[in-house]
Design the sequence.
């Protein structure tokens, strides 16, 4: 089924918060582990949208099954945050579609690179970032978890077409 990607609406809040929690539980992340947090969700307008970023959701048959945000770090770099696909909808290319949409949106917003992080136990996310051309910057130990930080340089659409 086709994933329809659109901008976040305030009425999505409960749905994306539930999606976030299901996805993290699926990979063994829990509140209090030093990596899991969800305090930005009630402030999506402020943290993502009002400061020059964006937040996208992906729907299949009108049901939100994926999401991801862009949070500006500085004038040239945005952080990809909250990239999630419901466990029942994984392995269908929805994560790749969301990441591609976020990267394209970052270019539209004038960013030259994107950064993000994931944990070593999120194998599907690591594979997605690697396939998408991200490079690892560093690793940090947080409690029992290894957090991996990555980055990708973005090219404007014209430059990508010339490759």
Sequence:
């Amino acid at each position: 089924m086709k994933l329809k990607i659109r901008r976040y609406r305030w009425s999505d809040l409960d749905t994306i918060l539930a999606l976030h929690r299901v996805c993290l539980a699926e990979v063994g992340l829990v509140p209090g582990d030093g990596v899991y947090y969800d305090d930005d969700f009630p402030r999506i307008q402020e943290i993502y949208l009002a400061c020059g970023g964006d937040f996208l959701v992906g729907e299949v048959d009108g049901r939100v099954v994926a999401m991801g945000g862009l949070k500006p770090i500085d004038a040239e770099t945005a952080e990809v945050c909250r990239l999630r696909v419901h466990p029942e909808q994984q392995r269908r290319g929805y994560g790749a579609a969301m990441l591609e949409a976020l990267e394209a949106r970052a270019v539209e917003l004038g960013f030259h690179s994107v950064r993000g992080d994931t944990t070593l136990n999120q194998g599907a996310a690591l594979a997605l970032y690697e396939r998408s051309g991200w490079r690892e910057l560093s690793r940090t130990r947080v409690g029992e978890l290894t957090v991996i930080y990555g980055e990708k340089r973005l090219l404007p659409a014209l430059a990508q077409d010339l490759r």
Q: What stands out?
A: The longest strand covers residues 63-72. Strands lie at 4-7, 54-60, 63-72, 77-85, 113-119, 135-142, 145-153. Residues 158-163 have pLDDT under 50 and may be disordered. Residues 4-162 form a domain with the Aminopeptidase fold (CATH 3.40.630.30).
